[in-house]
Amino acid sequence: MVIGAVQGTDCFGAAYEFRFNTAYQLRKAGLNKRVPLTYVSAEPFLGRPVVAAAPGLADAKGFVPVHDTYQAITYPNIHTVGVAAAVTVPWTTAIPVGVSKTGFPTEVQARVAAANVADRIRGEEQTRHQSFGDSPAVCVMDAGSNGVMILADRQLPPRKAGVLLPRPQARVAKLALEKYFLWKARNGHVRLP
User: Fold this and answer.
1) Is residue 33 a contact partner of residue 87, using CB atoms and an 8 Å limit?
2) What InterPro entries does the annotation carry (predicted)?
3) CA-to-CA distance for 29 and 18, rounded, in angstroms?
């Protein structure tokens, strides 16, 4: 079985989780010796034709450079968050796929962008700013029978506080969070944390 992330992915957490959970289920079913697992990492370029078609919108890798308001640098009418946003980090040139921008960081970016879009619609000045590196790091990774909680005051160094907690309780927390977020989405409670 081959598991990997799609071309241009810069957060491998979901693929790792899927790989860990698949390995756990195969062991549980007694099939792990019969089903070899291979993990394939993503290509270093994002393959979105609509982004590439807009002159100057994306960088050479296909990511959209943004301000800390999550407006595209070359097209201020376009707000970009998550995996498509090219964020500035000290080591970007050393890592072809950039940095993680899914889950909690994307939610932070989306809130900033949405508030700024609403301000623009009302004809007001955009007041929300949040650089990727300054947003808090909150991640819970499910790894089959175990899991890891990652908490830090900032996404990128220098950090004042950060902790990695590998515990079975992390898996339970991940499942609870997933159920909570699905309930929240199904019932329209988008303002809840």
Assistant:
1) no
2) SQRD
3) 16
